[in-house]
Write a structure and sequence with these properties.
Layout: E1 2-13, E2 16-28, E3 33-37, H1 44-51, E4 59-64, E5 67-68, H2 74-84, E6 85-88, H3 100-110, H4 117-123, H5 139-151, E7 157-161, H6 169-182, E8 189-194, E9 205-210, E10 213-219
Parallel strand pairs: 3-8, 3-9, 6-7, 7-8
Antiparallel strand pairs: 1-2, 1-4, 4-5, 9-10
Helix pairs in contact: 3-5, 4-5, 5-6
Bound molecules: adenosine-5'-diphosphate.
Length: 223
Amino acid sequence: MIILDNVVKKYNSGSEEISALGGVSAEIKPGEFTVILGPSGSGKSTMLNLLGGMDRPTSGRILVDGEDISAYPDRKLTDYRRRDVGFVFQFYNLVENLTALENVGIAANLNGNADKSAEILADVGLAGRMENFPNQLSGGEMQRVAIARAIAKSPKLLLCDEPTGALDVTTGARIFEILKNCSKNPDTAVVVVTHNPDVAAIADHVIRLRDGRIIADKTAACA
Ligand code: ADP
């Protein structure tokens, strides 16, 4: 379970102070597909970066299974990021001179899951593409490799920043279905940041941000 407790994030930009998150509280549960929606500049990426330990809040707490990661010393935060967080980005970030299987293998090795790389690629529908290099794959296939790489770590948190932003609508819908499927793992919380409100239909939990504040927070049971 991940708890954001009155999280504030301010950035200093020259002489100006920008409030990216103005006191955000929410609960994010493993086994759920959580979607963070909001217009550009509303604080979505900031929230994702804080959850992933890529940055620290200005104030407030981020509890991951009861531990406040915002109070971790740098070394421990790096370990958290490496071990417990899987990232999926808009532009895949695959290593170009490694095959799909090798790209997944790197992440799997970090957590001793190397033998599972092929199985995980098959789970995302890429059984026949394991020996291909990224430039031999379509955008949707590259994103599936990136998802496989992220889940090979068996992360507590799978964080996805606009994962379908570079894909056509049909391919994007397929990627959302794959991510939804990943959230069936009871140990993994899947959190997706997107502009695309259509994805709310398959989400278990929808958090809407505007101007750095939560304006709606609904789980499927009470939607
Ligand atoms: P979103 O992901 O919803 O587009 P962001 O979280 O990227 O929103 O940004 C929220 C606000 O914080 C914006 O006003 C943005 O300009 C500002 N911001 C984000 N990152 C930085 C940064 N590193 N330095 C200064 N301002 C930032």
